[in-house]
Design a protein that fits this description.
One of its GO terms (molecular function) is transposase activity. Helices cover 57% and strands 11% of the residues. The protein is an alpha/beta fold and 321 residues long.
Length: 321
C-alpha cells in the first residue's frame, strides 16, 4: 500500500517539544535542547512527512525548525493567533501542550500554510543586531522621559544609563554596518532602498533584516505581511471602515518614521498625502495610506533592481487614492 502523507504539529516551550503526527495520531515529547532535537529529527524520516507546523514562540522555535529544514523537511512557522483561532473554530476550547500540537497538525493538513524559508546565519545575526538596536532605542526614549521628573542621585543614575545606552547603540550601528556590507547582495539592495527620499540606513537595513520577502512577493502579500493592507469590514448592507490588522510591528515602526520624512521630501508621497487630506481623510488615515504606498514602491524597486527616480510628471495613481 502507498504510504499516506503525515502532518506534524510541534508545540514549543522553553523546556520541551510536544509532537503530534496526523493522521496516525502518534504523540511524543522530547527535550528542547540539542539531544532532544537530534532525536526528533530522526523520527520523521520513518514517515512520509508532508509538512511540520510550529508556532512563532519568541525565537524558541528556530533551532528545531532549522534542524528539520536542514534534513529536507518542509516547515511552516505560523502566528500563534492563527493556531488558537483554528482551535476555537474546531471546537477545541481546552488548551494544553499536547492538544496544541494536535491542533497544529490539523491546521497544516486543512489549510496548507506557506513554507517558511529560514534565514541564514548571517541573516539571523543581522536580524538580532537590528532587533537589539530597536530595544535599546526604546529604552533610551523611556529613560529620557523619566529623567525630567527626577532629581539628585536618581537623575544621575538615569544619566549614567542614558550614556551607556547611547554608547551601545553606536556600537550596534557599527556592527550592523559591518554585517550589512558583508554580502554583495545586501550592499546592492540597501543602496537601492537608500535612493528613496525618506529611507535612511536604519530603515533600509531593518527592511533587509526583518522583511526578507521584500521584492519576492506581490504588493498585496507584502502589505499583509507588514500589516498595512486595509481589510474590509462589511456584512450584508453594513459597510464598515477598512482597517489594518496584524503584521510585523517592528517593520511598521520604521516605515512610519520613514513615511513622516518622505511626506515632506518625497514628491510622490507628498502629493499623495496632500491629495488625501484634500479629500477629507484624517491625517492618520492618510499617513497609513502613504506607508502602504511607500512599501509597494520599495517592493517594486527590489523586485526590478531599479533605483528611485523622481518622475517628471506625476501619474494619476500617484496623486489620488
Amino acid at each position: 500500500m502507498q504510504q499516506r502523507s503525515q502532518w506534524v504539529g510541534i508545540d514549543v516551550s522553553k523546556a520541551t517539544l510536544d509532537i503530534y503526527i496526523r493522521p496516525i495520531a502518534q504523540q511524543f515529547q522530547v527535550q528542547n535542547q540539542a539531544l532532544g532535537i537530534a532525536d526528533l529529527v530522526k523520527r520523521p524520516q520513518a514517515f512520509e512527512i508532508e509538512q511540520v507546523i510550529v508556532e512563532s514562540t519568541g525565537g524558541l522555535e528556530l533551532e528545531v525548525a532549522q534542524a528539520l529544514q536542514d534534513v529536507g523537511i518542509a516547515v511552516s512557522i505560523i502566528n500563534p493567533r492563527q493556531g488558537r483561532d483554528f482551535a476555537k473554530a474546531s471546537g477545541k476550547l481546552a488548551k494544553t501542550d499536547r492538544i496544541d500540537a494536535a491542533v497544529l497538525a490539523h491546521f497544516g493538513e486543512a489549510l496548507r500554510p506557506a513554507i517558511t524559508v529560514l534565514a541564514s546565519d548571517q541573516d539571523r545575526a543581522l536580524q538580532e543586531a537590528v532587533t537589539r538596536r530597536r530595544q535599546l532605542v526604546e529604552m533610551l526614549s523611556a529613560e529620557k522621559n523619566r529623567r525630567a521628573s527626577l532629581r539628585g542621585t536618581m537623575r544621575q543614575n538615569v544619566d549614567t544609563h542614558i550614556e551607556w545606552l547611547e554608547e551601545h547603540i553606536e556600537d550596534l550601528d557599527e556592527e550592523i554596518e559591518e554585517l550589512s556590507q558583508s554580502q554583495v547582495e545586501w550592499q546592492a539592495r540597501i543602496a537601492l532602498l537608500k535612493t528613496v527620499p525618506g529611507v535612511g540606513p536604519v530603515i533600509a537595513t531593518t527592511l533587509m533584516a526583518a522583511l526578507p520577502e521584500l521584492g519576492t512577493v506581490s504588493d498585496k502579500r507584502i502589505s499583509a505581511l507588514v500589516g498595512v493592507a486595509p481589510f474590509n469590514r462589511d456584512s450584508g448592507k453594513f459597510r464598515g471602515s477598512h482597517m489594518i490588522w496584524g503584521g510585523r510591528a517592528n517593520i511598521r515602526a520604521v516605515l512610519y518614521m520613514g513615511t513622516l520624512v518622505a511626506g515632506r521630501y518625497n514628491p510622490v508621497l507628498k502629493a499623495f498625502y496632500e491629495r488625501l487630506l484634500g479629500q477629507g481623510k484624517a491625517k492618520k488615515v492618510a499617513l497609513i495610506a502613504c506607508m502602504h504606498k511607500l512599501l509597494r514602491i520599495l517592493n517594486a524597486m527590489i523586485r526590478d533592481l531599479k533605483p528611485w527616480r523622481v518622475p517628471e510628471v506625476l501619474r494619476p495613481d500617484e496623486i489620488c487614492c
